[in-house]
Task: inverse folding
């Protein structure tokens, strides 16, 4: 089952007044190889209590989790093919991230930070 399916199952069980531990036990006995852990179910219960529980995973703005794209792979491959002795730091400088992060994204005040 996918995460939205587990979240739907969880929501139905909570509405039927089942406890988080009971739901976890049901999932463990039914889906012994792949199921959300107890801490995940507890977090979902907290979200449900705060009325921020959503069945679908929300997308967040900003830097994507996955930065391995065909374009990035091809760019790094070309760099290494041109210079097989290139070090990782050189590749990082030649392929800057699409979204500035860390000190690069903070502006001039970042130089004084430790």
Result:
């Amino acid at each position: 089952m996918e995460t939205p399916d587990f979240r739907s199952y969880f929501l139905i069980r909570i509405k039927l007044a089942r406890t988080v531990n009971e739901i976890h036990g049901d999932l463990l006995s039914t889906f012994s190889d792949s199921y959300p852990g107890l801490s995940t179910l507890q977090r979902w219960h907290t979200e449900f209590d705060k009325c921020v529980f959503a069945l679908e995973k929300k997308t967040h703005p900003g830097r994507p989790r996955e930065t391995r794209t065909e374009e990035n792979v091809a760019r790094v491959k070309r760099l290494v093919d041109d210079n097989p002795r290139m070090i990782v730091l050189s590749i990082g400088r030649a392929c800057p991230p699409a979204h500035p992060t860390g000190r690069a994204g903070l502006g001039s005040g970042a130089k004084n930070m430790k």
